[in-house]
Amino acid sequence: MGLFHRNENEANFAGGSKNVMESIQRQNDTDDLIRLDSRQDYNTKSIIDVAPNEQVILIRNGAFYGLLPGGNRYEVETDNIPVISKIRNMLSGGVSTFSCQVYHVKTSIQEVLWGTASPIELEDHHLGDGIPTLVRGAGKFLVRFNIDEDDEACKKTFMLLMGDKSSFTGSDLSILFRAKISQKISSLIGKRLEERSKSRSINAISSQLEDFAEEINPFFKELFVTYGLE
Hints:
Elements: E1 23-24, E2 32-36, E3 41-42, E4 47-50, E5 54-60, E6 63-68, E7 72-75, H1 82-89, E8 98-99, E9 101-106, E10 110-115, E11 120-124, E12 131-135, E13 138-143, H2 152-162, E14 167-169, H3 170-196, H4 209-216, H5 218-226
Parallel strand pairs: 1-4
Antiparallel strand pairs: 2-9, 2-14, 3-8, 4-7, 5-6, 5-9, 10-13, 11-12
């Protein structure tokens, strides 16, 4: 099937054919963090509006095709960004079809809550020689999508994350990371607290939470970055 064909989806357009100019933008304000545009066929006069708090991801033939940063309007017929040039060069005429999937990705800050599924068992050396102690932990990460077009792992994970889904919500985000964070943080907190208990009481951690958070944050950066989050 050629690139420049009369696509069956054109029946969705007025008069059964593609409009000369088409505006591609987030169609409605939803709570979705990622939403797939319902349209997939565009023409050389198309205008892509990217809101300040979003990125637009283009997927073509199942592969990552390009990324448009937020806060700009892109015209397919102009040369204002490399990926637009690629689209323009594959079109011929105002009604030629360029098929791709357009994902609108919100970049506003989101909360990811976490909590230990069960008590963490560790040895409190401050109380004696390895006194068994149970602790629990809970907190939150503040994250936002910032997908890096130059990061191959990030792009691959985005493709796997969406699969055949048309949307990805805040609840999906929490569910995705709840198990990953809880498992890793239980091990990490246990080891760190045991080390600290050699010089101070574990109970003293309540007055040092900010320092403790900074200490364990780097261990989760790689996990989030792989999903295009910071």
